[in-house]
Specification:
- The chain has 12 helices and 13 strands.
- The chain is of the alpha/beta class.
- The protein folds into 2 domains: about 200 residues, 3-Layer(aba) Sandwich (Rossmann fold); about 100 residues, UDP-galactose 4-epimerase, domain 1 (Alpha-Beta Complex), CATH 3.90.25.
- The strands form 4 sheets. Strands 3-2-1-4-5-6-11 form a 7-stranded parallel sheet, with helices on both faces. It has a two-stranded parallel sheet with strand order 7-10. It has a two-stranded parallel sheet with strand order 8-13.
- β1, α1 and β2 form a beta-alpha-beta unit.
- α3 packs across α5 and α5 runs parallel beside α6.
Length: about 350
Amino acid sequence: MKRALITGVTGQDGAYLSEFLLNKGYKVFGTYRRLSTPNFWRLQYLNIFDEIELIPCDLIDSSSLTEAILISKPDEIYNLAAQSFVGASFEQPIGAGEITGLGVTRLLESMRKNCPKAKFYQASTSELYGDNNYDEQNENTPFAPSSPYSAAKLYAHHIVKIYRHGYNLFACNGILFNHESPLRGLEFVTRKITNSVAKIKLGFEDSLELGNINALRDWGYAPEYVEVMWQILQQEEPDDYVIATNETHSVKEFVEKSFSMLGLNWEDHVHIDKRYMRPVDVKYLRGDFTKGREKFDWQPKTKFDALVKIMLEKDLERWQRWEKGEHFPWDAQNYPNERKVLSRKLKFDE
C-alpha cells in the first residue's frame, strides 16, 4: 500500500486529493495547523474524516515537518499548505514569505534528510505570471509576480527546481490555474459570488460587494485538477506542468451567469467597493495545458457554465437545508459576515 503525506489537508485541494488517493488504495496522512476552532468541515463533507491520519504541523516549524515525515514514511508528498489568499498576503506579507516561501524549503530539507526517495509535488500557481502581456501562459512564459503571495510562490517554485537538480530529488511543480468547487473558501471571489447569490435569492441578503469585476481568469474544476497532481508524480522523470482550461472569463461574467441562473438581474444587487481592490491586480490569465495533454493525455472536462452551476446549486442547497434546521458540515459559521446572517435569521424566527 502506497503512503501519501498531504500538507494543508483541510483545504479544498487537500480534501479532494485525499478522497482521490483513498479511492486509489493509498494510506493518507494529512497535516493541519492547530487552531482554536478546528476546520475539518471539508473532510467531513466528503465523509473521509475518519479515514485520514491527521498530524498537527506548521510550515514555519521544521521539527514538526520532520515529525510528520517520520510518522507517515511517505512514498509521495503533496505540499498544498500555504497562506493561499492573494488579498491577505498584502496585509501579511512577511507571513506569506515565511509560510508560502520558506516553508517549502523547510519541507524539502526534511525530505532530503529523511526520505530522499519519495516524490514531491509543489502547488505552484498561475499568479506567478502576474500582470503579463502574453495571450497564453505555459511552462516557458516569463514570471512577473504581482503580490506578496505570488512572490513567495515564485521562491518556492524555484527552490523545488534547485532541489530537483542539486540533490536529484523527484520534485515537481504543478502550475495550476484557478480551480474552484463547492469546497472553495468564502474569501475567494467565485465562492463569495455563488454564496451571496444564493442568500439574495432566498431573501437573507440584498447586495453583493465586489472589487475589480473586469479581471479575467482561467477557471477549472478542482476535483479534476487534484487528479493531475497525482499524474504528475507518476511520470518517469520529474518536471513542471501548467494545468488550465485555455479559456478566459471575467469576474463580471461569473457574476452575470450566477444571477441569471436564479432569475435575478445582477445590476440590482452588485456594488463595487474600493476596499476589495488590490494594490496591484492581475488583469488577465489564460493557461496553455499542451504539455500535460501530450505527456499524460489530460484535458479539462468541466467548462465554465457547468462550474458556475455546480457551485451555485450547492450553495443554494446549503442555505435551504440550514433554513429547514438541518445540521451538516459547512463553513458559513467560520466567517463573521455569515454568522451575522445566521444570527439575524434566528432572531427573526424567534
